[in-house]
Amino acid sequence: MSTLDHPAVSKLAVMLREAGMHQSADGIRILADDVRTAALAAAALGVDVGAIANSLVFKARHGTEDRPLLALTSGAHRADTGVLAALVGADEVGRADPAFVRAHTGQSIGGVAPVGHPAPLRTLVDRHLARYDVVWAAAGHPKSVFPIAYADLVTLTGGMAANVSGEEDDPSS
User: Fold this and answer.
1) Which of 35, 61, 71, 146 could pair with 41 in a Cys bridge, judged by C-beta atoms 3.0 to 4.6 Å apart?
2) What is the pTM (predicted TM-score) of this model?
3) pLDDT tens, 133-166?
C-alpha cells in the first residue's frame, strides 16, 4: 500500500472534498521521508517553519477526567500548557503519550491530521498561522502533508482561533 492509499490519508482527502476544499485535497503530498517535526516539514516543502501547522495532542484534565485537546500550533511557536488550560477551562493540560494520541486520533504522533479522528476533538488553532496564505498540516501519516488556508483550517476543524503560545505578536512581522 502506498502512503497515499493509507486509510487516514484517504479519509482526510474525502473529508476535504466533502468540505469543498478540493485544492487542499488535490494538494496532498507524500514526501520521501517522515516529517515528524515542523523543521523537517518546512525543509522538505521549502517553506517558512511558521507555515507548518503542528498537530499537538494534549491531555486536558477536567476534574478526574482526561480529555483530548488538539492544538494546531505554528511551527514557529511552542504551545504554552498554562495558556491552553486557561483557554479551555481545564484544571491542567499536559502532553499526551503515544497510546493516548492513537486512541483519540487513530493516527501516530508526527502524522496527526487536524480532522479524521474517531470523534471530533476540541481544537485550538494558533492565530500565528493566519500570517501565511497557505499553511501545511499533516495528512494522517508522518510522510504526508496538505496545504490549506488558515480560515479553511479553522472552519474544517470547528476549532477556536487562539494565541496558544502566550507570546505577544511581533507587530513587525
Assistant:
1) 35
2) 0.91
3) 999 999 998 889 999 999 999 999 999 999 999 8
